[in-house]
Write a structure and sequence with these properties.
- This protein has one domain.
- Helix content is 78%, strand content 0%.
- It is built from four helices and no strands.
- Helix 1 packs antiparallel against helix 2 and helix 3 runs antiparallel to helix 4.
- It starts with 8 loop residues before the first helix and ends in a 7-residue tail after the last helix.
Length: 116
Amino acid sequence: MSQLIEMPGEAKLKSLKSLTQVVYILYALSYFTGVTSIVGIIINNIKQEEVAGTWLESHFRWQMRTFWYGLLWAVIGALTVFIVVGFAVLFANFCWIIYRIVKGWLNLNENKPMTF
């Protein structure tokens, strides 16, 4: 029979911060691999309850919004690429996602929550 070992508050928070950083890395790597952001959003959803009530909750919300809005605009851009405006939409989406990854990562490294 396995037992759950509860980590002390500070160790748990440090572990969750590392996990949050991994998700930012996965989102950034998705520009090269194409699929790592899917792993990132799965991690966000699985661990969402564990970060609830901590300053990391705002990072998870930031990451999840980055994924879903980025996906929405990628689909819109892809569907409108044949009328040329899609290229502008895709480029703007690319810049917006990079901005959100960098801003989130910088705030995470400074132990700051994300503000909306």
